[in-house]
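Morning!

This is the sequence you dropped in the shared folder:
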Amino acid sequence: MNNFLYWLATASCLVFVTFYQARIFGRSFKSRTRDDISSFFLLNEVIDKHKIKVMAALASVPLSFVFFIIAYYMPTYGTALVHYIFEKLFEKAALDAGPGESVVSAIPIELYPLIVLLAAFLLFGAQVSFLFGKIEKAAVFLFAVRTRTNEFVTNAATELLGKESYEEIIEMLNGDRTHKVPLAEELEEEKDSVKLAFQILHIAKQEVKSVGLNNAIYTNLHERLREILLAANLLEEPSPTGRPADDIPVFHVFAAGLMFFIACSLYLVVCPLGNGIMTDLGIAWPNPEGYRNLVSNIVQVTITTIIPCIVGVVLYQARVNTTKETRLLRVLITSACVITTSLVLNFLFIVKDRLGVVLGVTDGTDVFMQHPELIFIVSHSLIPFFAVLFLLVIPNGGKKAFAPYQLLGAVAAVSLGHCVSQWVYEHSAKLDWAFYWHQGLLAAVLSITVALLYLAFRGSRKPLRTINIAYTTPV
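The structure's back. Tokens below.
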């Protein structure tokens, strides 16, 4: 019963942490920079809610992951953190540390997740807020949200000024409005194209969140201006549903996540059944009693490989419409992001293992970042890079988002990558485990599951574009 209450408290706190980050995402102040038109608007005034949700979900992963690790290894890290918190509190209150130790020992472990959560807000609130702010800025930059918005409205303004004068356009924009379209004070001395770009964005900002930037501008523009932009292919007819064309139903995301969880649960049950046979063959294999280690292994492969692959695909699609980038530059940025994400996550898992040794909870050496560990981190960080490269570089004729052979190449890259990387690690560490067979199988099961889910739900958004490396002009 106590174990159930502990995990219930942990799950509740984790849900709160994730949803709180998603809730505050994009609500930071406006920087109001003259060379960045979108900086005069909040994020939800220049991008639809679907894309905000995707970005918010990805931005919430790092801090939620840290909380999950603390909660999952509560006897190791959580207990130490709670002791540290109470020591600091007693120090500030100028109380003897002796009673403090007895108070900490008397706290039920079911309350530890809540104490860690409260400490994050009350004691480390400024640091957590600072970190999340940096993560949010990184997400906005990587998805090129403000860059694409600025280019869209600037190109629209330039096209309109080529057909009509600024004064005539403003008169059309004002129309029968009670209040005239405003202009930011900082932009009053700027050229007409900059002023008009701001004003176009301003009249559409209230509807962008629900219908997307294109549909919002289409709805609020004068018919004459709309015709000019349609003729120049800078504006598209709104989708019949009124929603952004690449919107994904929330149910599809939830269903895919549930199916992935079911697949992981089945693997957790079935895989240890082969322990006897594999052990006789001299192959290290999970056993039924060590399910906790297998759970940790599944979580690690999912977080360090599967998630970076998904981030890479989503990031590339988000940057597809960035006109100042060549396709080669776009794939380089995506690849750098994927490798960096996986590198950091693999490093954090190594840190987690070493902390367990230092605190005396797990066996092993407390010497940090030896040669085999460096090989492990680097080799495993390259796996999602090659998988994403298979998806984006191999042409598919433009008929489908991803053809089956592209997905097969990505699955092979993930499966063989884990098998080879584990073999290289064992060879460098002089270990005779042969655990690389299991790692290859686990990676294959997880990547095949994701590929099948993609095939099942791929009709829920527009096809992705693939990369032609030889193509070097902006798209």
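Headline: The longest helix spans residues 327-358.

More detail when I'm at my desk.
O.
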